Amino acid sequence: MAVSRTKKAFHSLRESKRGLIGCLIVLAVLAIAVLAPWISPFDPLKQVLALRLKPPGFQSSQGTHWFGTDHLGRDIASRIIYGSRVSLQISLIAVSIAATLGILIGLLTGYFRGTVDSLFMRLADIQLAFPFILLIIAVVSVLGPSMQNIIIVLGITGWVVFARIVRSEVLSLREREFITASRALGSSQAKILFLHLLPNVGASCIVIATLEIARMIMVEAGLSFLGLGIPPPTPCWGGALADGRTYLFTSWWLATFPGIALMTTILGVNMMGDWLRDFFA
Fold it and tell me: For residue 207, what is the domain's CATH number?
């Protein structure tokens, strides 16, 4: 069954140019992030003021700076490569936390309903009524900018979308014949939740998680751009955009290449998410 499903997925991917391009982009970014120490041409933290604001393709005694250098003489290509690690690490861990919380809450509220359902859904309504980015900015401003704080905040505040989707599906599934039969056979509540209901909502959760990764990357970049994300000198795409805005008309490459990396990654994740949505439909 698993082999058949895998073959079907590969066949669907070959038929979908958009999905194939998205998956290739995501795999390329993952490979760059994993292999960063070996493929990075320079130390991303090393400052050489004599080489500041050099254009793309500049040849120095240390090698070629393909994307140029920034205002502190650091190689932009190397900082983009290492910045991919930061973006992926934050987004993947944050989405994992959000998915775990949201799926668990969605299963419990959709199956048991009652007071627990009302409590969590009102909490979700309150959180959705408050602008997400403002909530993140407020919390990070209090806790302070750091990778750990950003992951915690994004993970804890991202549960709502998972919980609502899972809850709506569980409300329908709990009345299905196989759940009624499982109860009649004396299955425990935990078995019904995690062996019968959870696999049936897994496809929706995968699609949501894929799209949430793109959103988390964007939010992290936005926070770093505002100075509330990853503190310098750690390389990150949002921080590179913030550094480059001052030199936008004189040294365009400072913001252009990190922006292209950010846009391409988010585009690839969204394209892969669209393909997964169609595949599981």
Answer: 1.10.3720.10
